[in-house]
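Hello Y.,

Per our agreement to keep a running log of every chain we model this quarter, I'm adding this entry. I've kept the format consistent with earlier entries: sequence first, then predicted structure.
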Amino acid sequence: MALTLLVLIVVSPTFLDASSQHSSAKGEVSILGMMLQGHIFKNITKAAFGDVCLRECYQDIRCQSFNYVFTEDICELSNRTKEARPEDFVPNFERYYFRKDMKRVPLGSVPELPAETCKEIKTSEGGQAVSARYWIYSIIPEKIVFAYCDMKTEDVDECSSSIPICDPKANCQNTEGSFHCQCVTGFSGDGRSCTDVDECSSAIPVCDPNANCQNTEGSFHCQCVSGFSGDGKSCTDVDECSSSIPDCDPKANCQNTEGSYRCQCLTGFFGDGKSCSDVDECSSSTPVCDPKANCQNTEGTFYCQCVSGFSGDGKSCTGKDWVRNAPTSITTSLVTYPFQPYLQEVTYLLSENLQFNESIIVFSMLSVIRYRRSISDMHFTLALKVLNGVVPTNLNTLSRNVSSIPVCDPNANCQNTEGSFHCQCVSGFSATNEDAPIRLMGGGANYGRVEVYHNGKWGTVCDDHWTINEANVVCRQLGFSSASQASCCAKYGQGSDPVWMDDVYCQGGEAMLSRCTFPGWEKHNCAHSEDASVACNN
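Predicted structure for the entry above:
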C-alpha cells in the first residue's frame, strides 16, 4: 500500500518554485516528472541545470519552453508550451518541464515562430491573444504566411494570406474552417489554377457576323469589319455614299452595298467608277447617226446633225423632191487614175431627161469615189470601183434637187452629191484643186498619219478643224466604207515632209480630200506635232 502511494506522488504533476532551489531559474515555472514532447527543435548536452538551459532558451527567439533531463544533464528546447499543446504534455520521471515566461515571444508573432492554427495561438496566449494577422504555416504546404486570425471563432482567413492561395485570376472566399477559390469570368479551372477562356473559339458566336473577334486575357474584343459600324457585338452597314468616304468620279453614281459601295460611271462615260472617261459615241463601230449626218461627240453624250441638203434629227435624215429611176443602159471605159488604177469610169443612161440647172444625188450601197456630169443631158458618169471586170448596176435610187444659190464658179457646172455637191469646170477651164492621191503612214493598213501627194512630194495635213467629216473623205478615197476615228496631235508619229494642207473643211461627201475647202497648198500655221490621222472601218 505504501509503494502504490509513492508512485502516485511521483507521477502527479508537482509545481515547484525553482527559485527556492535554484536561483538561476527564478521566475520560471517548473514541473517535475512531466515533459512536452514532439516540439523539441534543439538538444543541449552536458548542460548543468540552471544557467545553461535558461541562457540558451532566452537567446533563441523560437524557445517557448524546455525539458531538463536531470539524469543526463540534457536541455531539450521546445517551440511550444504545454498551454499551446496540452495533448503533448506527458509524464516522464527523468525530466523537469520549464515554461519560459520572461521575454517569451508570443506564438505566431514572428515568422521564426509560426503557429499551426489560430486555436493554437489562442490557447498559447490566453487572454493576450487578439484578432490580428499572425504567421501561420499550415495554410500552404512548406510555406509560412501572414494571415488573419479571428480569435472569437478561432478561424484563420486563408484569403488574407500574404502568399495568395488562389490563382491571380480567381476570387477567394473564406469560409469557417476552410476557403473557396473560383476563377473569374473569362477563365476556367479549379480556382487554384485558372486558364484563359478563348471566347472567339466558342461554338456560340460572341460577335456579330460582320465583326472580327480578338481574344484577350480573360475577355475578348469584337470589332466591326470595314464598311460596318457598331460595338462589334452588333454591326450595321455604313452607307458610304452618304458620307465623305466615296472617291467616285464626279461623272459616276455611288451605289451602297452591304459592307462596301460601288462607283458606276454615268451613261456616256466608261471606267471603273473612280475614274470615268467620256465615251466617244461617234467612234463606235455601230453608227449612231444617219449616214447623211455629222456626229459631234460631247461630254457624256453626242448629237447628230444632218449634212447640207438633208433634213431631220440627225439620226434620221431625208432629202427632198425624190424621183426613183433605174438606169436604162450602162457603158464603161477604162480611165487611168494615178495611184488608183482600180477605178473605171462608168456611164449610166437615164430614162428621164435632166436639165442643166438640176443636180443629181446618187444613193447606193457602193463607195462612190468620184462623180461628174456628162456632156449629154441624158447621161451622168461615175468613177467607181470595178472589181474583176464586174460593173455595179445597183444604183437604184436617184434624187433630183433644184438649187437657186450658185455654189460653184461661174465657169463650172454644179453637181449635187449625196449630202453635198461637186463643181466641175466647163471646157476650156481647169480646176484650182487637183485630184491628189493620199496614203496612211506610221500605223497599219486602215489607220495611220494622213499624207497627200502634191508637186512630186508626199506631205502631211494639219489637224486644225480635223473632224470625222474629213476622216470619212480620206477613208472613202482609200477604198474603205467610212472612218471610225479622226485623231490629232501626231497620234501615229510626226511626218518629216512639207505640211501641204491646213484648215481643211469637208462636207463629208467629197470624192477626194483635195476637193475639200482649204486655203491652198502649203499654206499653214502649224508644225508636224499637229499632223492629222484617221482610222478607217474595214
